[in-house]
Amino acid sequence: MNACFMQHRYSHVNNIFLNDKESEEAVLESVARFAKLGGGCLVDNSTVGLRRKTNFLREVSQKTGVHVIAGTGV
């Protein structure tokens, strides 16, 4: 068994792409808790190729009141 492979957080596709409905609900819940604790802004540092959903980032901001800054990857 390759212990390094099992421990690396990017070794499983489900840890790389978070664009399914279940992941989006988890993100909304997490950001809502962040806001409740006084958080007001977060930065999405995704780069080109990660299939970022900018409309979802807008939705997160609108539903939670947290400002979201999205890098362009350029």
Keywords:
single chain, 74 residues, alpha+beta, two-stranded parallel sheet, 11% strand
Provide a descriptive summary of the structure in words.
- The chain is built from three helices and two strands, in the order ααβαβ.
- With 74 residues, it is an alpha+beta fold.
- The chain has one domain.
- A two-stranded parallel ribbon has the order 1-2.
- The longest helix is centred in the middle third of the chain and has 16 residues.
- The radius of gyration is 14 Å and the shape is globular.
- The N terminus is likely disordered.
Quick structural overview:
This protein is of the alpha+beta class and 74 residues long. It is built from three helices and two strands, in the order ααβαβ. It has one domain (18-70).
Rg on CA atoms, Å: 14 Å
Category by helix and strand content: alpha+beta
Residue share in helix: 40-55%
| Residue share in β-strands | 5-15%
**Terminal-residue CA separation:** 39 Å
Overall geometry comes to globular
Q: How many helix segments?
A: 3
What count of structural domains?
1
Strand line-up in the sheet with most strands: 1-2
Q: Averaged pLDDT, please?
A: 79
Strand and helix order? HHEHE
Q: Could you give a short account of the major beta sheet?
A: 2 strands, parallel
Poorly predicted runs: 1-5
